[in-house]
Write a structure and sequence with these properties.
The chain is α+β, with helices and mostly antiparallel strands and 411 residues long. Helices cover 28% and strands 33% of the residues. The chain has one domain: Anthranilate synthase. The protein contains nine helices and 23 strands. Strands 1, 2, 3, 5, 8, 9, 10, 11, 12, 13, 19, 22 and 23 form a 13-stranded mixed sheet that branches. Strand 20 and strand 21 form a beta hairpin. Helix 2 runs antiparallel to helix 7, helix 3 crosses helix 9 and helix 4 packs across helix 9. The chain is globular, with a radius of gyration of 21 Å. The chain starts with a helix and ends with a helix. It catalyses: chorismate = isochorismate.
Amino acid sequence: MTDPAVSVPALRVETTPVAQFPSLLPLLDGVKPLVFIRRGDGVAGLGEALRLEFSGPDRIRDAAAAWKRIVAAATITDPVRLSGSGLIAFGAFSFADESARTSVLIVPRVILGRRDGVSWVTRIDGAADTVGATPLGAEYRLLFKPGALGPDAYRDAVATAVQRIQSDEGLSKAVIARDKVGRLPEGADLRRVLTELALGYPDTWTFAVDGLIGSSPETLVRVKRGTVSARVLAGSVGRGADAESDHAAALALATSQKDLDEHRFAVQSVLDSLRPHTPSLVASELPFTLKLPNLWHLASDVEGTLADGSTALDLVCELHPTAAVAGTPREAALAEIGSLEPFDRQRWGGPVGWVNADGDGKWAIALRSAEIAADRTITAYAGAGIVAESDPERELAETTLKFRPIVEAFG
Ligand SMILES: C=C(O[C@H]1C=CC=C(C(=O)O)[C@@H]1O)C(=O)O
């Protein structure tokens, strides 16, 4: 970021309640959509009033500090007082410290919100943009091809990780991803993809921030009026073809020691990061099975009361990367990922979400997602948590299922 001491703008922020938006998606900019919704509720943005860029190991810490300065200088009128009204910034952060992909906080010129039957518009510095649905652009389809780590190379990478985990006491779990690439037609209306994702995966966070687009089932952290919560996912199996085999798949997952181990590492990493900030952190003793259209996941909800006034971004900084996307222990897992994945994950597996002026916010882990580059190349990623008992063929099949939301929404 440029020297913040010199460049903190005094944003004038005004929220007004409006007639209910039937849906936020038709109101978006189809080429540069900005949105974070679940089951139709959430926030969207038009244009950019402010864009802050960060990189390197301190990218999230720098963003958290910059946001506090922006908020302190802003004048906010917000009669709506709901989650997402008033001043917010959308954000997306790279997975890796050394990523070439820039991390961002974006304050749109106009913010649109919808929650519990109430809708609102927030204008920054009196922005006069019209808010209204525009016709969808032409239909398109694109095919994804294997990227830098194709299916055969992925199996080999998983086998190498398994060997290392079995022989090295310093590594228990590593999440290894592969990539697929495609090319977006010029001027493609991304609202088509977002609509597919939101309708197909209604219980996930559907998002588009600065070219990062997807539908993630995993809540990295949510801060709301002094409480903190997270939904940790790790351990997966494909849905069965009929009711009986589907039930059997869920049961097998819930009783699989390999998946329970994989899950335990992920929950532990979240508890370790949050515990210093809350005296009352509760997680269920056993995970539950979460049903998505493509997969069953082992899931645990974690909740607590915040004792130290941490903002959502402060906690994002502590939590990232959890063992659901990196592994255990964190440093050894990151080294393993670095040696086995021949690509930059960009912002896949990183935090994506929003923060408001009180420090409340909702952040997902950017899974089931793709990055769109300036030249319209799209790179999608999917990974799997590798532990000592992992089988390369099964992990490859799991990544195919995890690619499904993105591949089908663009296809
Ligand atoms: C790494 C991914 O998922 C993570 C989240 C849920 C389940 C996971 C698993 O079972 O491996 C992964 O930890 C992905 O979606 O590409």
